[in-house]
């Protein structure tokens, strides 16, 4: 990721995509599985649907419990804001109208397979990152850049895991996730970020 100089109020975003040699439906079923995200993320520890929900649909909520070596431990409630199998799955963290962050997977057919993109935007509501910025306002741009770089690395790991699982033979729900240590470890020791965090 190149230096952008963005501030939190700019709503910084990160997006990466990967080609997967598998049908869009198979890929969507993986990215729409919040439990799989907890298994492959280095930051998201546990996740659970709320209010009796058992799967994704617009308006459904899920709780995520996260841990980061620099930020600490925290929990969030996310709201599904887009859910169109096999094309889109998105959720807003904390408040669907004014979220802490918004995450989205997009799947589009291409050739014999598909392209899957994971995208995230910070803000506009304050997050735990805002607390770090408040303590060191002169370093806001650097703080934002470091967090977005973590997101970029984590998204790359997520997409690599989804690609591997989708391209394995057999039903996706019977395939084990790639080794988390291989997927989550970053060159600077930062964990892969959680799709339910900010």
Automatic annotation (TrEMBL):
Feature: compositional bias, Low complexity: 176-189
Pfam families to which the protein is assigned, alphabetical: Polyketide_cyc2 (PF10604)
Alphabetical list of SUPFAM superfamilies matching this protein: Bet v1-like
InterPro entries: Polyketide_cyclase/dehydratase, START-like_dom_sf
Chain positions covered by the region annotation Disordered: 162-198
Descriptive protein name: SRPBCC family protein
UniProt source species: Yinghuangia soli
């Amino acid at each position: 990721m190149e230096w952008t100089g963005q501030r939190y109020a700019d709503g910084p975003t990160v997006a990466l995509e990967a080609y997967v040699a598998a049908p869009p439906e198979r890929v969507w079923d993986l990215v729409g599985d919040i439990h799989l995200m907890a298994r492959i993320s280095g930051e998201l520890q546990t996740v659970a649907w709320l209010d009796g929900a058992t799967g994704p649909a617009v308006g459904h909520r899920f709780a995520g419990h996260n841990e980061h070596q620099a930020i600490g431990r925290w929990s969030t409630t996310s709201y599904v804001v887009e859910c169109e199998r096999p094309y889109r799955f998105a959720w807003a963290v904390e408040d669907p109208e004014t979220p802490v962050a918004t995450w989205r997977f997009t799947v589009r057919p291409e050739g014999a397979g598909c392209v899957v993109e994971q995208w995230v935007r910070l803000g506009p509501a304050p997050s735990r990152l805002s607390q770090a910025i408040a303590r060191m306002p002169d370093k806001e741009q650097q703080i934002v850049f470091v967090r977005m770089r973590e997101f970029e690395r984590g998204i790359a790991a997520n997409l690599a895991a989804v690609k591997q699982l989708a391209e394995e033979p057999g039903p996706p729900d019977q395939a084990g996730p790639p080794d988390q240590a291989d997927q989550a470890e970053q060159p600077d020791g930062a964990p892969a970020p959680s799709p339910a965090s900010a």
